[in-house]
Design a protein that fits this description.
Blueprint (H helix, E strand, L loop, with lengths): L26 H13 L5 E7 L11 H6 L4 E6 L9 H8 L6 E3 L8 H16 L11 E7 L5 H12 L22 E4 L4 E4 L12 H9 L5 H4 L1 H14 L4 H5 L9 H11 L3 E5 L5 E5 L1 H13 L10 H6 L1
Parallel strand pairs: 1-2, 1-4, 2-3, 4-6
Antiparallel strand pairs: 5-6, 7-8
Helix pairs in contact: 8-11, 10-11
Length: about 325
């Protein structure tokens, strides 16, 4: 359904929050980065995984200087089923200078053509490279890197199922931080003999601005409580209205688009019968809508793709 709205119906700028978000870099990430660097002499190719919904905002540009260097490199944009397929050529064009080898995957889909492409491409790139100290090695080692919660472990498991006919080798979770250390080698293929080092998700210690941080958080690469689900829900509403993506109106049975997050969340709480009981100053109980739970429902609907296929970096891709 289309809506005819005045240009000034919605906010043109999102008033940001405490800038501590852009300085958040937990200690285990620094430790993990050092472990990754110590393994590099044993690595033949880097497989860097990021979220296709934030192909520019979501990547850790520091990897180029700290990990990937001169190694053969493949950029995997995972969760591609959550974006419009028509956006893929523009994404590839925007990234091609720094990332000439881009693969889109849906790692939870074992029949995904992208998962099938990674292994042959890695073979080709390694074959064309100077392996230096590993020139005589009979096996090949990949290292998978990326920011938290982009599906690295799911991708490893999908590749094992595809090429080794074996199941899970590493834990998978819906929150960032499941993989905390560089693991022992995980076998991917018998002939030829390929292994992969799993690694923890590493954010850039210098997130350039708060809006980039909010996009990272919306895609669950930063834990929700670091920002607050109310703020994340408000930013999501701002972004949807700014891009005129009004699927949320039908999804939550609203009358029309709305730029007031409190009204949206109150409505979501009401239609889902989510309430909280609190005491007033006279010690009487009051029933109020559970806005926190409503914010969680709103954010989850985006993450599940229920609000449409959305790429949060649409504006940045257009600028390119």
């Amino acid at each position: 359904m289309s809506y005819k709205l005045a240009e000034n119906s919605f906010r043109s700028v999102f008033k940001t929050i405490d800038t501590d978000l852009v300085r958040w870099f937990p200690g285990h990430m620094g430790k993990g980065l050092k472990q990754m660097q110590q393994k590099l002499r044993s690595v033949d190719c880097i497989v860097e995984v990021h979220d296709a919904r934030i192909p520019l905002s979501g990547k850790n540009s520091d990897f180029k200087y700290t990990v990937s260097g001169l190694k053969p490199h493949i950029l995997v944009l995972n969760k591609a089923d959550l974006i419009e397929p028509s956006r893929k050529p523009a994404i590839v064009k925007s990234l091609k200078t720094d990332y000439p080898h881009v693969v889109f995957t849906e790692s939870k889909n074992q029949q995904c053509t992208g998962v099938k492409k990674i292994f042959p491409l890695a073979q080709e790139l390694i074959g064309e490279s100077n392996r230096y100290n590993r020139a005589n090695a009979e096996d090949c080692n990949l290292m998978i890197i990326g920011v938290p919660n982009v599906g690295k472990s799911s991708l490893i498991n999908a590749m094992r199922i595809r090429f080794l006919r074996k199941g899970k080798a590493t834990s998978v979770g819906a929150v960032p931080g499941i993989t905390r250390s560089v693991l022992t080698r995980i076998k991917l293929c018998e002939k030829p003999l390929f292994y992969m080092f799993d690694t923890p998700g590493i954010l850039s210690p210098n997130i350039p601005n708060v809006e980039t941080g909010l996009k990272l958080a919306l895609c669950a690469t930063i834990e929700d409580h670091r920002v607050g689900e109310g703020i994340l829900a408000d930013y999501l509403l701002y972004w949807l209205n700014k891009q005129q993506r009004f699927q949320y109106v039908e999804a939550f049975r609203l009358d029309r688009p709305n730029d007031n997050i409190l009204e949206i969340l109150s409505h979501i709480a009401k239609v889902n019968n989510k309430q909280i009981k609190i005491r007033d100053t006279l010690n009487n109980y009051l029933i109020k809508p559970d806005l926190n739970l409503a914010a969680h429902i709103f954010i989850k609907s985006f993450r599940n793709g229920d609000l449409g296929k959305i790429m949060l970096d649409d504006d940045l891709i257009k600028l390119k």
